Amino acid sequence: MSTYREKLSILSEMISFARVDRAIRDAEYDFLLGVSEQLGVHREDFDSLFENKVDKIIPKTQADRILQFHRLVLLMNVDSSNGHPDEIRKLHKIGLRMGLRPSAIEQVLSIMHQYPDKIVPPDVLIGIFKAHYN
């Protein structure tokens, strides 16, 4: 399980990602708040992340990195903006920084268009990353 600092880092990265297109829409905020609650982050700490940055901590395990990448894909598509080009570039960059395989990242970004609301099912996403790591 992640430490509280790691959870804040996860949320901070997601907030930064949501700001790529210059505005955080209500749907994005609600999604971020839901992730915050799921992670057990206090509401005051969550809200403070919109004003204060925290140190970036890369998730330790491959599973945690894939989960964070999936959260970011969901966040990108939560407002139905069809993936702003800057968001796709930043998502790709974040995936690489976390040590995910470029080919797996690209496959996820291309197949997401095949699913309703571009929500790649977790089992499909995991299958993609497994295939690229075997």
In short:
The chain is an all-alpha fold. It has seven helices and no strands.
Provide a descriptive summary of the structure in words.
The protein is mainly α. It has one domain (4-133). It is 65% helix and 0% strand. It contains seven helices and no strands. It has helices spanning 4-18, 26-39, 43-48, 62-78, 85-97, 102-111, 122-133. Helix 1 (4-18) packs antiparallel against helix 2 (26-39).
Write the topology of this structure:
Layout: H1 4-18, H2 26-39, H3 43-48, H4 62-78, H5 85-97, H6 102-111, H7 122-133
Radius of gyration: 14 Å
State the share of residues found in helices, binned by percent.
Answer: 55-70%
Number of helices: 7
Task: Calculate the mean pLDDT score and round it.
Answer: 90
Distance between the termini: 25 Å
Compute the number of strand runs. 0
Order of helices and strands: HHHHHHH
The tally of structural domains comes to 1
The geometry reads as globular
